[in-house]
């Protein structure tokens, strides 16, 4: 049995307990299902909970492990998935009336990969309408229930932070992985665009969308990333390079560039101070610190991102919207209307501007290994009618470069997050720095009061 009154268990710790046969898959899954019953009425992170299905799979795995000499990397690890990710035979409604009752006939590639690795799906988590801006769900931030958990991966972040699961899948088109991670004291790697398949995931904007997994630690992030990443014949946007596995290693030779330009001038005092403390820790570890600015094309690239997202959102929804626009929320109706009015020439110009920004950002990485910024301007805002600003995440989603968000402090009851950014395909550098930083700090080990 799990002899703890907390839900601070990590994937790495749970794997060890399972391999030592200190707990069984059924005991592990039952523990989290029981905790869901206790805290879900307050947090409201789930749209579907698969209690019987999860317990049935746990029993199957339990029988399998009796004779197994080696277990898959995520064997019996309970997880949740954002409700825009296809799950065969399980409703996938995307937070929308348009898809009410829709049940996919196949699993998204990331679900297939997790199933293959032995993970157990506990349910589907809440999202804003079609993972777009507007129409936030009723989900609460478990650190303070009167605050937003962020969006659009609202339920995925809140479910993990409140201890209802060991990891969760989310997506990001502007800041929907990084921002909820920062607001909820979690760790997340938003990999290079194309590192993780989007096949079987309802698109918000196909050329901007990224998939990722919320975890508690960098160590857990590495375990999950190594299962999720790699080329996929069903997704032509994935890299055709061989699968590259990340490692936990000690590397202290990187130069880190602290971004100091005016784009981040709206950062709250508490977050600025927490970032300064994190930089001191990085210096102690041995990293070289310098100061840099983002490319001049940043402002134009941000505008281009908005245009691309509107056009691609409108393209996906055009047929259904034309048939019955009333089934869409007011914000998304306007977003689609504006997207349908965008001319092809303007869309192509916007994509060109994005390309220029990517090239200029690549030039910055000729002088530093990583960039460092706050993950958000403020901690999680009060109220649940808005999900907070993605401004500090958007440029790096736009460029398709990898980022790592991790907790670095607290402002009262609410977590503070920091963002590290690397050049394309340089996820290992992010892991190196993030792992060493978490060896020196304990912010990632803190839990909301409802978990204690």
TrEMBL record:
It comes from the Bacteria. InterPro entries: Amidase, Amidase_dom, AS_sf. Residues 27-430 form the Amidase domain. Pfam families: Amidase (PF01425). Belongs to the amidase family. This is Amidase. It comes from Metabacillus rhizolycopersici.
